[in-house]
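Q: I'm writing up a methods section and want to include an example of the input and output format. Could you take the sequence below and give the corresponding predicted structure tokens, formatted cleanly so I can copy it straight into the document?
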Amino acid sequence: MNDSNLKNARILIVDDEQANVDVLSGLLEFKDYTNVYTTTDSRLVAGLFQEINPDIILLDLMMPHLTGFQVMEQLAELVPDSVYLPILVLTADVSAESKLRALAGGAKDFLTKPFDLTEVDLRIRNLLQTRYLHTQLQNQNLILEEKVQERTLELQNTIIELEVAKTKAEGSDRLKTAFLNNISHEVRTPINGILGFSRIIAEDDLELEEKERFIEMLEESCDRLINTITNYMDISLIVSGNQKVKLSDVNVHSFMKEQFESFEDKCSAKNLDLILQVPDNNFILKTDKELLRKMVTHLTDNAIKFTSRGRVTLGCDFKEEEIELFVKDTGKGISEEAQELIFEGFMQENVTATRNYEGSGLGLSITKGLVKLLGGRIRLESEKDQGTVLFITLPVH
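A: Here is the clean output for your methods example:
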């Protein structure tokens, strides 16, 4: 809480002795507080509270008409449970019973008269800072609730799009069966994360650091869900023959450099070296840049996912009237038996061995379908526990 916000806080002093009110008012004026309100009649506190909405109340206990305990009972009816209202009790009653009763009745701090003005100033400052943090958390909760509602609407729209994709996929029994088996995990898992973390984030007593960490996890779940559904849409378009190709001039060197830069952070997070091997020229390839990006992205994602140490290499070679892009890794490799099935939809080499790896298993089948649309071919070279190289060969138009 910055100092200007602190000094603008609304402070209400309640004490039947005008001398005490004057001392406290003088202290606050000396400390540059600008919004100080006072009353010597405890019957007026409820009305003043509704009128000025104080940020802190300095309250005496032993007063005529209404005691401080009765005032706190009135305030308990007016203050919502979600609002943190600091009440600092300043009283001549030094009994432990009164102190415990005050703290149980809503007081956040307790000082006995005669009090040290320096200590009073520090207690007020600490309580105001705590109220500010609570207010900030409440505001963040409101923002998060709006974001959750926006995400929920996005998810509802995505589910509608998913139903359209599912309908198109029903022409293929194999795709339909695999889709239904796969979606139970790859869609429900991130949705569970989204719902779970959104509930946790809404808790009032959650620390700011924890809240930021949970927001990051919620966003990761949202990104995973969006990526998964994008893959379902892509495979549906390919299988149904509705995927469009938009040819344009692509600078291969610049394109591969962009891909390299987009995966640097991901490799760094796994302590993998990322290497770029491309000829230093401005060769122009006539192709669909977006589909080319999808293919290289799927291959690179897979390489990073299944490589625990070593390096991943992105590169390309020019061969007469063809260009060959490749992604090489030092990962777990693929057995000869699995190499024949690896391009099938929803396939990873071994379900048991890859259970710890998230993903729909559509990356290679999507890549194969897109390569075919662009008039090219895809192949792999791999040895178990030695790594894998995937090649995309495209004609030079």
